[in-house]
Amino acid sequence: MAETAKYEAINGGNLFTDMKTQFSLLKTKRTVGFAYGFLFIFIIVTTFLAFTPSQNSSSPWFSNIFSLTKQEDVVTTTSYRSQFSSVFSNLFPKSSFEQPHLDKKGLIVEKSENYTQNNDKGGVLENPFNSSSVLSDKVGILMGNESVNQSFDDKDGIFKANQSLTEGSKSVAAVNQTKSRDFDDKVGILKGNESKKTAPKLSSKGESANVEKKRDVDLVKSLLNCDFFDGNWVKDESYPLYKPGSCSLIDEQFNCFLNDRLDNGYLKMKWKPNACSLPRLNATHMLELLRGKRLVFVGDSLNRNMWESLICILRNSVKNKKKVYEESGRHHFRTEAFYSFIFEEYKCRVEFFVSPFLVQQWEVADKKGGKKETLRLDLIGESADKYKDADILVFNTGHWWTHEKTSLGKDYYQEGNHVHNELNVLEAFRRALTTWGRWIDAHINPKKTFVLFRGYSASHFSGGQWNSGGACDSETEPIKNDTYLTPYPSKMKVLEDVFKGMKTQVSYLNITRMTDYRKDGHPSIYRKPNLTLKERRSQWRYQDCSHWCLPGVPDAWNELLYAELLVRLHQKHQAKKS
Asked: What residue stretches are annotated with the Trichome birefringence-like C-terminal domain (predicted)?
């Protein structure tokens, strides 16, 4: 009974009713327990997916919580839908769930459009994302969530604001780089095509070379019958041949630019013959012409002016300036009787021998037991044996024949042991040059040595001579009216007569007229640096209206020398052919 009593119906119910009630309660508890268990498992799984990144499936929804607030409204809406789709696809990978009206590229598409606009401003390829095939072909089908997933792939494992947008931009950049590579490839193909097109045209290149060669030959031929010295100075902005102040070898007294001369018109003039066009001096080519040779200047300080000009022109074309140097290491060129610059790479020398009269300066005993200076009109300069084997010789004389001693000619000119009490300077000049001419004929081999003589260079002292207040510092333009030119010097007429009596052919650089135009080209008061204008114009300072600024007029003399070398080379080739 006791056991039976435990199972008696409550409130008068029977056993079946009571059991049914117990089973109903049991069923309700199980359902609730199952629901709670499922919810707990769902939370754990969701949390695990949210905080556990992987290569294939990461936590795009959670990771973008930090970036949603900083995105634009349109981007936010699209991003949210993309994130929801991403979570859904992670939970149900086989689901065909797709968000309506949402491009599969998601954020990438919108960011790429912005990126494209920015790059258009920078001149990048126009519309690099014109078709979706660019994305699919170059980087696969980039889903918005895949772009977002990159935020957790940072090696440092640190959350970064707007990481999805940054990675999206990186993806776009990658696509753009791919596109750029495609473009570069096309350019490369074009270049390749150009190469293929030009490859068969080797003959046309040969034809072009032949045309250039013919042009050079025609140019040289045009020089053969051209009077180089009948012409005018024309302005040319491509001059000078080397940058002012760039050549440290120029003597201080010639370096007008570094001596604070402010006007620069004198630097921009080119000599233009009336009957032809002189070639611009190509320093590299001239050095090739001089390879293995000696070019020697012999004469006074005006030839030193020309020598320094050529050294600067040639040196300017040499890359390694250390391979251009004065043989004895000198850097100043006014005190010694001989200087030699070596161009090591070309194994050539460009030298200068001081010999202002071309004949020897001498001394004899006077009546008082002392010594007096004389000029031996019958003896060639004492350095002649040192340069007689040179390949090219450029002589000059003239200015020292205008000095007081030579002009007066009293007890100064000597022949043998006889000192003339008085001798006309023009006659003394003729006798001295005759001595020079005879020495050339006797000692120079014209087949080896090319002999040139540079004529008298005009001076422009106004209001006196060099030592009596003569000036030219106000001159900034060349003479343009021929009526203001001085008559041809009588000494140069004597020189021409001497040439006629010589066996050796001498090329005469008759620069007298061309220099007469250039009253603007002298150093004048710009002979020293760091002087005030008052100091420059001081009555105690002489103006130099004989020598020339460098860069300047002597550069044109060297262009004439270059033209003469081209003509001689052409003549030698023609002689070999015949």
From this structure: 278-563
